[in-house]
Amino acid sequence: MLIYSLVGLTFIIWTGIYFLYFRQQVIAWFSNRFGKDRPVPVEDNAPEAQLPFSYTPPPKDDKS
What we know:
This protein has helices spanning 2-21, 23-34. The protein is mainly alpha-helical and 64 residues long. The longest helix is centred in the N-terminal third of the chain and has 20 residues, at 2-21. Residues 41-64 are annotated as: Disordered.
């Protein structure tokens, strides 16, 4: 049980050291990753709607 406690304590300490050392980079990453994005501007020259895909089978040969 002592080993599990030491592993947990070591993990907590290393996580704390990592967060303290890279605090600014981690905060910038979180704000970029989970922050609110600005809406995309609407273009006036939007492309026309594409027609749906339609498949026309090749003509059958009537050689019988």
